[in-house]
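User: For my dataset I need records formatted as: sequence, then structure tokens, nothing else. Please produce one.
Assistant:
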Amino acid sequence: MVENGYAEIWDFTNNEFNPYAWKLYEPIGTNITKKVVNLDTGEEFTSIQAAIDDPDTKDGHIIVVYPGDYEENVIVNKSVTITSYAGNPLDTRIIALNKSLPTVTVLADNVKISGFKIEGSYYLYDYAVKVFGDDCKIIDNEISNHHGDIGIYNSTGSLVSKNKFSTIRVENSSNLNISSNTINVYDETGILCLDTFNISITKNTISGTEGTGVSLYRTNYSLIANNQVKLVS
């Protein structure tokens, strides 16, 4: 939580915000020193990719990203958790450096990404976040892109929850949970599933204009329940 220029500190031991610990931070746009920390090794970096690529970073490690703008195309090829320091997407942004590529590409299994504003490319046929791994979690992010926000391919057991975005495409995947997201549709389909199996789509709020809420093609044994859909043509 951020209040009056202070960021409440995340307690990774108890997995909650510490209500008694606060740290003064500078808002985006000021001279912030970029800082990315591997909590398991204590090493510090100035980019998310450098933290991932470091040979001391292993599967299961937690990478914390401090407030600021990180202009890079992140490739996650290790099973790590990447989270923002304050849990506030508005003060920690990942912006595509190469606009023809996804902002974040997840290749490994068991990856968690949370607490970021992720701004994507301007390339017409790509997504801001692309997930190819199994059992991945995309949680509590704000994601925006010129064409599509989230693309999930050949993935099993992944979770997309409590995010804000406009479109998600799921293809050749199974046992996915898409829940409790806020989806603002603009002349496209909010949730599109192709050749999928056992997809759970629940408790999402889908609104916008000139679009479709949920579309399923060649999708079996799936659940759509307790969603709020309000589209105005």
